[in-house]
Design a protein that fits this description.
Among the domains are: about 25 residues; about 80 residues, Immunoglobulin-like (Sandwich); about 130 residues, Beta Complex (Ferric Hydroxamate Uptake Protein, Chain A, domain 1), CATH 2.170.130.10. It is mostly beta strands. It contains 22 helices and 54 strands. β29 and β30 form a beta hairpin. The chain has a 22-stranded antiparallel beta barrel. A 5-stranded mixed beta sheet has the order 15-20-21-18-19. α10 packs antiparallel against α11.
Length: about 1200
């Protein structure tokens, strides 16, 4: 009995506590105090001001409150309850407190009470806490008559229901639909909606259409910008790493502003541009500079000029859709063979003005000798190399054969042993000094930097007019001293809706100012290759110099005496007018115009090593090619483009049951793009004297004949490029019961890029595709399958090669006194028979969603074959050119893609808006296999010269049938001999006679295929990522990994370097691997690092001896040491796993945000490129760095960012 009483008492106290807490919460709300001084304002303004000063929300019917007219209130530190009593007295309205909700309603009249229910409420966003206007609220009922309403611009709703118990459904575009129950005791609701972050997006934007994903027959990957945004990363293309299955991402430099290389489903073109097409808001974007596609395709080329979207602010982007197969890209015609990336920017939303501000501060660290990726000798190790060279009697050749040019330890050695100018103690002191010097070139040439990024935007509007405007500024400092990138962006977008007429207008612009060191300086190359055993400053305190090209050189002075600047300005305007004649038919007109300038300058001062060599300062000034001042190289690019498009759309259900649905679009488009380029080099430039030029009179030219000769040979170069295209396109979609969807796309392009044969000016692009929504058919009754659909497509894509004219273009040069006349050269050889490249594409895929969307994803397989691919053929130079583009290549690409989305834990959101624990896991996989199907050179074609070179085999640019593009070859390392020299299979010295007889009658190609081995492709075959999202209450943690598999990397050179073909010169550093080099006979059994070369690069193998020397020379002019660097021993796997980004975010609670002066916001701490796991064989070399490049590029650097984002 006693236990029962105790249980009853405990239950009583619990109920009392709950009741007391509820009453006290409501009482506290009633006692909230405000100070108001408002005159002649609407009641809405009064409620907004009370909300701003408190944590309370108002719910009311605007039809009731608008009758109150204008109000004036002047109170100080008064309770909200008293204020409401004053303003509502005698109005027939009353108020009720429901927690933090205040419901304004009519006073009850007993005679008006009827059976039913009246519910008021407010709907807010889970993340920001902002109210959501336009949310659909409807009663869940089996009745065919839907009863519902929509929230007003303040997120409020009032709904009178015929029942007292049931459920309401809340739905809004971009948010998860939510149901909430109500009973006879419910009179108000506070609803929290969550954005659709865990599902495949509902709408796919192709640029020409917006397609319901349930009707999508094509291969498209959609990502929200909010999902891929990484603070501190200012480029959209860099954010796509590991996010898009089937997209290959390659970043070959960590230099600020360096553009990554992207490939979608392999490489469809060999000579043509291999980059995807960029589209922003339905308009194709063009690159700021018309760079030669072959240069862009070069995997070692570092593009600092940027691509078509380099000036776009990521904060202005809403969604990115990547179109992959023919069904998705056919409407873009011949420019879309490499895939299309469609960017949709932010637009205004219905509601009061929202001002958003984002600030990001980013810290990036420079390379250090202690890094794993910097495996270089210290001073002691490098002096040990010098000591061994001296003791073994090294023989230096070339410009370093003069003992007076020697520096460091070698200079001290000669001063003591050869000249006797110093004592033994002095020699020991100097040796100890150089051994412990350890000059930190990475610190002197690089820096830790702080960058900052600001973005300000405002948006709002009503159903008739919406607007969005933004301004952005990014200051990105480079880790190499003197390098930075500043970007300014601005945009305005307005949408106007009037009955059946909709108009959209947009204006945007950007300014980019970039500063670099000239690429000729090779700053990172210097840091990696310069010995640490020489100082920066000499004993006299002046910069320490050594001879380079017979003239003094110091890298710091060179950086002060040169620079490379890029200044870009771009602006665009677009307009779209849409008129809906009927519910089924609408007409859309689109127009856009863009213009841009890109000016880059390279300057060398008169004290730079580059100019000193031109001056030939060691001889008479008459031999100088630059007698005064320095040199200024300028490239000026002017670009413009326009697009006009008219499109008619027709959509209709053809029966009462809505089983048959048709959507058709037909359109016409006219587009044009133009580039005007001027390139000029001028000497005598005096930058420090007001940026003027030294003036020479006519008679002075006789004093400087070499300079005069240069002047008459050097003249400004002008080039123009104009591409006009007109197109017709058609798309037709049919759906039966939302089960079977069939689609046909077609486009015909006429272009001036192809010439005299009219039938080649036209190229039709088409696709057929279908979709089977099995969840509406055979598995519709399987409860655990939420979505299951099969997609199939087949079509043809095309590509065009620019700068291939139909008529001969002559470059009329200047006067040449040595030849006694004007000089003309063939600029472009006529190519009237060139046809389009054609790519046939097949794609099949399955989209699925299981277990209440806890498991979602898609899997796709594809096969692409390109025929009539552009290839470059060597022709006799009697034509005035040495190469000619022809249609003779066939390329194959095939692969699979897998995109998954797991939601293991996804707790429901409670009514107070607080979140439970959320975990989302998204792995992405994309495999691409690429192969050239026919030889670049046909053995029976005797009219063309043999084009292949050894360097093409070694750097991966060779094109061979049956091998992937970018496949490189290596000499077959066979070990060291008893003298520590490297040997190679099929080039053994003891087989010289046999091999000579074997190789002498073979072509160069066959010899190289015999002595070289295929190492692999430089392009990954499998890439992807897996992303984790954890959320709890106001905190979220995002962890993103990216991986790359299947490519091979040439290791950085250790036996040959920049300053010598083979032997390390006094100023040259070595990789630390050389510490374990061969030193004594027998070491060849324990090491593969060759001995130091004391013969000065004279050993080029037995095949170069006079007895055997023939035209084929299996190693060209290479020595056995450079062959060693190009051997299969020096090849490693390029596989890596990278912690791409890590971000911790704190979402400010609404109450705290109000106290801080804004409505919502968050603070995040993040890092990018934090750590990379890769092959041990790389010996610390970064996977982005390649030994095939002539220079060493800075690796992608880690970044640490703090981001504050607030909304007012």
């Amino acid at each position: 009995m006693r236990e029962k009483i105790e249980k009853v008492m405990k239950l009583f106290w619990i109920l009392m506590c709950v009741f007391t807490f509820s009453v006290s919460a409501e009482s506290l709300a009633q006692q909230e105090r405000v100070s108001l001084n408002l005159k002649d304002v609407a009641v809405r303004a009064l409620f907004d001001e009370i909300q701003r000063q408190t944590n309370l929300y108002f719910v009311f019917n605007t039809e009731l409150t608008d009758r109150l007219g204008q109000l004036s209130v002047n109170v100080k530190d008064e309770t909200v309850e008293n204020v409401l009593q004053q303003i509502l007295k005698g109005t027939g309205l009353t108020y009720k407190f429901r927690g933090d909700l205040i419901v304004i309603q009519q006073e009850d009249k007993k005679e008006d009470v009827k059976k039913g229910k009246r519910i008021v409420g407010i709907v807010i966003d889970e993340n920001s806490g902002d109210v959501l206007p336009g949310v659909t609220v409807k009663l869940c009922s089996e009745s065919s008559v839907a009863l519902g309403t929509a929230t007003d611009y303040q997120g409020r709703f009032v709904l009178t229901l015929p029942v007292v118990k049931g459920a309401l459904e809340f739905s809004f575009v971009g948010y998860e639909t939510q149901k909430m129950n109500f009973t006879e005791k419910t009179d108000s609701l506070r609803v929290v909606l969550r954005e659709k972050m865990n599902e495949l997006e509902d709408v796919v934007v192709t640029g020409y259409q917006q397609i319901d994903r349930r009707h999508l027959t094509a291969a498209v990957t959609t990502v929200k910008m909010s999902d891929i945004d990484v603070p501190g990363v200012n480029r959209i293309d860099q954010m796509l790493e590991g996010r898009i299955p089937g997209m290959t991402f390659m970043q070959n430099s960590g230099q600020v502003g360096a553009t990554p290389k992207l490939r979608i489903r392999g490489t469809s073109s060999i000579l043509g541009n291999q980059e995807p097409l960029w589209v922003v808001d339905g308009i194709i974007q063009q690159d700021p500079v018309n760079i030669d596609p072959q240069q862009l395709n070069d995997l070692d080329f570092v593009n600092l000029l940027g691509n078509a979207i380099a000036g776009l602010n990521p904060d202005d982007v809403e969604q990115i859709d990547v179109l992959k197969d023919a069904a998705a890209t056919a409407l873009y015609g011949v420019r879309a063979a490499n895939g299309v990336i469609v960017i949709t920017t932010k637009k205004g939303k219905v509601g009061p003005p929202k001002l958003s501000y984002s600030l990001t501060g980013t810290f990036s660290t420079r390379p250090r000798y202690s890094d794993r990726g910097v495996n270089l000798m210290n001073s002691k190790e490098r002096v040990d190399v010098s000591r061994e060279l001296m003791e073994r009697g090294v023989r230096y050749t070339g410009v370093y054969n003069s003992f007076t040019d020697w520096i460091g330890y070698e200079k001290a050695y000669l001063d003591y042993f050869k000249y006797g100018s110093i004592s033994f103690n002095d020699f020991k002191e100097r040796s100890a000094y150089y051994e412990t010097l350890n000059t930190d070139w990475l610190d002197l040439l690089c820096r830790d930097v702080f960058s900052h990024n600001h973005s300000l935007s405002i948006s709002g509007g009503n159903e008739s007019a919406k607007y969005y405007a933004s301004f952005g500024y990014a200051n990105e400092e480079g880790n190499i001293k003197g390098e930075k990138n500043e970007r300014y962006t601005a945009s305005v977008r307005v949408t106007v809706q009037h009955k059946r007429l909709q108009m959209q207008f947009g204006v945007s612009g950007n300014v980019q100012d970039k500063t670099y060191n000239p690429s000729d300086l090779g700053i990172m190359n210097y840091a990696y290759n310069m010995t640490r055993a020489i100082p920066l400053y000499g004993e006299d305190g002046e910069l320490y110099t050594y001879k380079k090209g017979n003239y003094p050189f110091n890298i710091i002075r060179e950086m002060e005496e040169s620079d490379y600047t890029i200044n870009q300005r771009n602006a665009s305007a677009n307009a779209q007018v849409q008129y809906r004649f009927t519910d089924a038919f609408k007409l859309i007109g689109t127009a856009s115009y863009s213009m841009g300038t890109s000016d880059d300058e390279t300057w060398y001062g008169e004290n730079s090593n580059y100019i000193l060599k031109l001056k030939d300062a060691n001889s008479s000034m008459t031999r100088s090619e630059c007698p005064f001042g320095g040199e200024l190289k300028t490239n000026s690019n002017r670009s413009s483009s326009y697009t006009f498009r008219v499109q008619a759309d027709y959509s209709k259900f053809w029966d009462k049951n809505k089983d048959h649905f048709t959507n058709a679009s037909i359109g016409w488009e006219l587009s044009s793009s133009k580039y005007n380029t001027t390139a000029n080099t001028e000497r005598g430039y005096l930058k420090d004297r007001g940026m003027t030029f030294a003036a020479l009179k006519g008679e002075d030219y006789s004093k400087y004949p070499k300079y005069f000769d240069w002047v008459i040979r050097n003249y400004p170069k002008y080039s123009k490029s104009l591409t006009n295209t007109t197109s017709f396109y058609l798309t037709l979609t049919y759906s039966y019961k939302d089960r079977y969807i069939f689609n046909v796309n077609s486009r015909a392009d006429w272009s001036n890029a192809f010439g005299s044969r009219s039938n080649e000016k036209l190229f039709p692009v088409w696709s057929f595709s279908g979709r089977w929504n099995m969840t509406n058919d055979v598995v519709k009754n399987v409860s655990w399958i939420n979505n299951l659909a099969l997609r199939v497509s087949y079509g043809i894509q095309g590509n065009m090669q620019n700068n291939q004219p139909t008529q001969l273009i002559i470059n009329k040069g200047g006067y040449d006194s040595s030849k006694g006349g004007y000089i003309s050269t063939v600029e472009k050889f006529p190519n009237p028979d060139l046809k389009w490249e054609k790519t046939y594409s097949f794609n099949a895929g399955i989209d699925f969603s299981f277990l209440k969307d806890k498991i979602q994803g898609s899997i796709s397989g594809y096969y692409k074959k390109t025929v009539d691919a552009f290839l470059s053929k060597t022709v006799c130079d009697v034509n005035g050119v040495t190469t000619y583009v022809v249609n003779s290549g066939n390329v194959e690409n095939k692969g699979i893609e897998l995109s998954l989305n797991f939601n293991p834990i996804n707790r429901a959101v409670s009514a107070n808006g607080k979140r439970g624990f959320v975990w989302r896991f998204d792995p992405q996989i994309g495999q691409t296999l690429n192969k050239l199907l026919n030889d670049r050179i046909k053995r029976k074609d005797k009219t063309l010269q043999d084009e292949l070179t050894l360097s093409q085999f070694l750097n991966g640019s060779v094109q061979l049938s049956g091998t992937p593009l970018n496949t490189f070859f290596s000499f077959k390392y066979a070990g060291l001999d008893n003298q520590g020299k490297p040997t190679f299979k099929d080039l053994e010295a003891d087989r010289a006679e046999e091999l000579h007889e074997k190789y002498k009658n073979l072509s160069k190609k066959d010899v190289w295929l015999a002595v070289l081995d295929e190492s692999g492709t430089r392009v990954p075959v499998l890439q992807g990522g897996f992303n984790n999202y954890f959320g709890y209450r106001s905190f979220s943690l995002t962890v993103n990994f990216s991986y790359s598999i299947g490519n091979k990397i040439r290791l950085l050179r250790i036996a040959s370097g920049e300053y010598s073909a083979v032997s390390p010169k006094p100023m040259q550093n070595l990789r630390r691997e050389f510490v374990n080099r061969w030193r004594n006979p027998g070491d060849e059994k324990i090491t593969d690092i060759p001995a130091l070369d004391i013969e000065g690069g004279q050993d080029k193998g037995w095949w170069n001896a006079n007895k055997y020397k023939v035209e084929w020379e299996p190693s060209g002019s290479a020595t056995i040491y450079s062959m060693y660097d190009d051997s299969d021993l020096r090849v490693a796997s390029g596989n890596y796993l990278r912690l791409q980004s890590l971000s911790l975010r704190y979402l400010f609670p609404r109450a705290l945000a109000k106290k801080l002066g804004f409505s919502s916001g968050y603070l995040s701490l993040s890092g990018s490129n934090l750590f990379t796991w890769c092959s041990k064989d790389l010996k610390g070399q970064s996977p982005e760095q390649s030994g095939t490049s002539s220079v060493v590029n800075i690796s992608v650097r880690p970044k640490y960012s703090l981001n504050l984002n607030v909304v007012f």
